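User: My advisor, Dr. K., asked me to get a structural model of this assembly before our group meeting. I'm new to this, so sorry if the format is off. These are the inputs:
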Amino acid sequence: MVRAVVLLAPGGPAPCRVLYARSFGTPPGTGTGTGTATAGPRQRLCRKEQLLAVARQVASQCQLLQSSLGRPSSPQLPQLPDEPMSLQDAPGGLFQMPPGDPFPERVTVVWLSVLALTFALVCEPQENLSLAEITLRRLAPRLLLSLRLLGPGADVLLRPDAADGLLDRLLPHGQMLFLNERFLQAVDRELGIKASR
Amino acid sequence: MTTPAPRAAREQPPGRVLVPDLLCDPSRRAEPLCSSRRVPADPARRTGRPWGTAFAAYRGGAGARRARDGHGGPGMFTAAAESFLRQAREIQQEELRRFAARVSALLQGPEPGPEAVDGLQRLHLTVAATKYPRKLDGEFVELLQTVLCSPKSPEQIQVLCAAILREMSPCNDLILSCDEIQDTKLLSLVSSVLLAQGNKGEVAAVGQRVVKALERRLPEGQSARFLLPVLANVLRLSPGSLTEEQIDVVSKKLADWLRYASIQQGMAQPSGGFFSSPRTKQPAPITEVDGAVATDFFTVLSVAQHYTQDQWLNVQTFSMLRNWLLCYGGKELNTLNPGARAGVDGSETPPVCAAGRAGRPLPPRERLRDKAFEYCQRLIEQSSRRPLKKDDGDLQKACLIEAVTIMDIICKQDSFYVCRAVSCLKVLHSRICGDGTYARALLPIAQFFLNHSKLAAVDSDAIYKHLFTDIPAQLFHNPSLAFEFVQFCKDNTQLFTDSSSIFRQSFPNLFKFLAWNSPPLISEFVDLLPFLLDPDTTIEIFHLLLDLPCLTAALDIQLRAAALPASEKAGADPAGKPATCLEAFRHPLYKSLFQYLLRTKAAPEDAPESLVPLRQLLGSLAGSPRVVQCAETVPVLLELFFRVVAEFADGSLINQLVVLLLQRSDQLYEIPAFKEDVYRVLGSQLATLCGLRPALLVELSTEILEFSGAVSNIQSKEAIFTHLAWAVGEFLSVSHDKRCTVEQITRFFEPLEAVLFEITQLRPQASTPSCAPRAISVLMATLTKLAARSQDLIPRVSMFLSKMRTFVQSPAVTSVYSDEDLEEILIRATELMNLLKMPSVAQFVLTPPVASTQFQREVNDSLPLALRMVTQLLEPAPGSMPV
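Assistant: The format is fine. Below is the predicted structure of the whole assembly, which you can bring to the meeting.
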């Protein structure tokens, strides 16, 4: 299962920004005491901080990888792709976050960097990471398209419904799915996406 | 950040008059995010929306062109997003309240349309953009829930309401319940809000509702497809939410979905167009990924033009199967029919390979295991087919990993399956072990054999040997494999306790993963390193750590050499000297050195005389970012190395390490920052080792004196020199080691005195670079300590110290050292001189108690206080002390 999805602009010299984040459920009774008036806000704050910690770590891993590949740390302004782009070679990686920092349990983060944006899945530790990578490679171009991420606007911040719609099909409630190409086409038909990859 | 242009009339949507926003703070240049006044009605025409003029200009043709030309793009995108985020965070409570009121009116209008969507989207951003709570009216929150649950609401609006409610969670004003919801899609959406509350009761209620829906026949047009993921999430959040009976009911359903999905293709939704005719022909059978007609039951690797609902459920069932089995797979013995069957729950009963089961119906959970096992076997068979679509090849591999993992789980729960699984996985292993693209699947296979080979009495050493010998050496550059491989090692640390084992022997191979992928793996290696270290591996790992960046460079060459076309692989003239690293890789001069550095398993006896030529050869790669990143991990691991080794090392190992440490300080890969860091760690660890075992000073006196007698070491390796000099002063004492006779002390004293003489009395004349003031200070202190223990030396030291005043005043010195440093040196010299005027006090002050266990003491941290006390006793006049 996936705990959360984070979409961020890793920033380079600027601080990284979380552009979209979605947690799939909150584990009951974590950390904060329930019942008190401040418990709610504290629980929410904790959730936000956890995802922010993931984003920061992803941003730094992303920059380190870019630099080890001999690429500039702040990606050059990309060309808008005229052809469907292949994400097979997009830089990405995996890392683990230890128990207690920032989640009570160990998690594995799988990330993929596309142009100036980075997509990350926060997975349970024993998750099938090959499937997580496949899921991420499928989500990324579809999010790019439906949030118009390569356009100059701020749709990414203003279209949570588009992102949620995608996740409901490809990662419903954080459940990764073994979808073969034909199933994926069926999902795309349902979403009204034409032959995107 | 772009300065937004003032709002221009031409940017407004035609036919729409904008009310100037009175709420807008004039200092805020962009339009407010939540204007309670006017929201443009048509989201498709956002080009003209009255807010965010910062980005409006970049939309449409001009914006796209600019992005394409490289003038816009993410830079601008970030600027726009940045500005929106800031606005969202700055919105005041009152402004928000008014905006919510407006959205509320829209939602309660006759047909909430694009305007309401737009309002909800902005509201979501306002709530989501800050980590601090946003207060929305209780009534409004209630309205969001009503709209969410109303069947009349458009789906987009429902999705947005749910998103806002999730974002605000945990939410005090929640009246939401999924009990009455019949529509499965809506039930899924509402569940997402309830499961976000972090409340055990809510999770259990959702679980109950979903199971109830699954138990009954769903109404026409409703699909369980939307419910299974909810159930999977309930399982993750709170596994105790289902009763035993419910687990059985669901297990039965899952088994059916898994094994008995339709093997005919689904029908296309009739488009109803003019030319579409109702299809009357028979549905086609499903096919395999290679296009062949399927001969067996449906799985996630079955291909069809269209899929039926039960085929969708098949996919979802398999996707959640692993977690379901882990949660509920192996519990029935605790509850139902104790003793119904032997061999359940990993009992020790050996499996009966030949015999099948009696032909009685299995209880639901056993039946699910049975069907799951068959499914996994079929997936393994299907994964051998060549896919028509490339991406299905990736899915095949992921399925293989899942199938093997599930088989492992099933065998842990019921050893009945072990024999079948073993023979299946043996065949699978021999099929894929030669294909690098399947390497990740070898890990769960090895895990399976680690868990079960004892019970099945099969020899699986060849599997482990292949995994640990060939895979890291060939695929160290695959980051995902590297991560999973190291994870596998961490999950199985018990394997590394037997030092003769293939696992323990393979550490040089494991370090290749780290050398190539250091940023994501450093923390994993911090966990793993202690398990690799023992008295037999210590020395080899010490060398490996110091050569880690060099290993990165060698791996780089290895990769490049492998990529060369065969014609160029023949190599250069073996008689001549290779011109490039690549040529050297196969050159007789370097070949064996490369081979040793890139060895696949421990080989302490094969170590070449010296790797110096190789380090020099690879010097050209020292600036490569990957090498530098690797070099940065070394200090962390070195410190850990010494901490762990100190726990088990005996005297001879410590002596060996100290000798090596001094030797290797001359032989490091040429990266200045790396060397500096390594010297720092080695210096402090050297002092620690001397504290652990003061006897080494006498036993290794030749090596130590050779090192500390060389002035060049102060300049090149100040950290090591200073710590060593300090350790001599601190631990060369009869109270630590009976062999520290007056002769021994004099033996150490004289070379150190000569060094200090050289750097303070000779150097000022020569125009040589300065030595660290810390080294001078420590040398003076060490000589004083030794003199205090062998009092014949006191006059020599005192005379020496008295000359320091001339030293600090000489023009050659003042031009090199700072005034503060010189003053400190002089003060220290004066203090030490004063101390030596009272030899018995000096001896007492300068000899630390033997029982001291605080090895990590800072250089001289005990001295200053004592020194100042003595100085005060001797020179009570005010002003003689530095303030």
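One thing worth pointing out at the meeting: Chain A touches chain B through 84 residues (CB under 8 Å).

User: Perfect, thanks a lot.
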